[in-house]
Amino acid sequence: MTEDDFRRIALSLPGAIESAHMGTADFRVGRIFATLGYPDAAYGMVKLTPDRQDMLVAAEPAIFQPVKGGWGAKGATLLCLAACDEPTATGALTAAWRGVASKTQLKAFDAVHGPA
């Protein structure tokens, strides 16, 4: 997985735009659901629920780890780009997007892709 792959997947989600936040690229649909380049270029970050974070960290510890501190406790999860494949990144980014997307966006997405 490259930075360009992560960016392409994030921007493929309905309504997603790229912006910047604290010196890193971020992806948002009103609110941020992912960032790229924190803590360095080897990582992306996906904003998950704590339960989803726990599940992914337990299943794929070489790919996922909680961000240190309070943000990590709330679900901010690092994704190691080099260790991640496209289907895994797509699932994580889609879960993060679902957490901030509007009800209208979710309904339209689910009509095409099926509910989560």
TrEMBL record:
Source organism, top-level taxon: Bacteria
Pfam families given in the database record: YjbR
Protein name per its UniProtKB record: MmcQ/YjbR family DNA-binding protein
InterPro entries per record: YjbR-like_sf (IPR038056), YjbR/MT2646/Rv2570-like (IPR058532)
Native species: Caulobacter henricii
